[in-house]
Fold this protein.
Amino acid sequence: GAVVSQHPSWVICKSGTSVKIECRSLDFQATTMFWYRQFPKQSLMLMATSNEGSKATYEQGVEKDKFLINHASLTLSTLTVTSAHPEDSSFYICSAGGGGAGEQYFGPGTRLTVT
Amino acid sequence: AQRVTQPEKLLSVFKGAPVELKCNYSYSGSPELFWYVQYSRQRLQLLLRHISRESIKGFTADLNKGETSFHLKKPFAQEEDSAMYYCALSNYGGATNKLIFGTGTLLAVQP
């Protein structure tokens, strides 16, 4: 089946630094990937849609310059949290579009803690 | 506006009891609806989609356009069904087919 991986699974960084999270589709090509943020015991909030070879589409209220998304190949999308602050601490999840409309394959998530 | 509502944050039932997880949606077009499940310490995964009209792990969900609902049902709950369940609506017709998630319902099946 379709597998999506994320790296790292968890990361701790200091305030003001930048952190890059990778999302890979391991056994299929994904022209579209999605980045979500999940707060404890809350739902997934879509941050942006990442399209291979083009600019990402950000949801309302998500800072483009803070959350940089790059989808340079059909199997890799990256999310860079720039100048991280403690309020950016969260669980970040990526997904890749599946074969059917609306079907997505999710990565295991990355826990980011900013100290 | 497109919206998915799951009114219950927590649903606790005993093993063997029937389960119904409620989901209502607001969508102007022809909806594509899904149930995703997240077991403890596992990734989110697709449980079922309305167009397939299938039963997965004993769960079924029927799309009721009149009531704009897509409730998830299982006649006899098992302890292994304990998980977080999310109802989702696909942005059908949109180029990206992004999903709109409800807030989720935590199902706790007691022994």
User: Anything to note?
Assistant: The mean pLDDT of chain A is 91. DSSP finds no helices and eleven strands in chain A.
